[in-house]
Amino acid sequence: MKAKSNQKKKGNLSGTQHGPFICQEVLSRKFPETTLEIQRTTGEVISAFPLLELSAGHQIAPDGELIYVLTGGQASDTGILRRLIAVNMTEGVVREVGISTSALPAVDREHIAYFENGIIVVRKHDRTRIFEKHLGQLGVLHGGPAHACALLPNRRVAISRGHRCEEQIADLTVFDLDSGREEHCVELPATTSYKTFAPAALRGDPRGELVAILGYHAGLVLVDLAKGIDVADAYQPDPLDLADGRPTRHSHHSYSDFAFDAEGERLAAAYRPGKLSVWSRSGGVLKREWVATNPKAQRIVTFDEGTVGFFDSLGERAVFAIGS
Question: What's the structural domain count of the chain?
Answer without folding.
Answer: 1
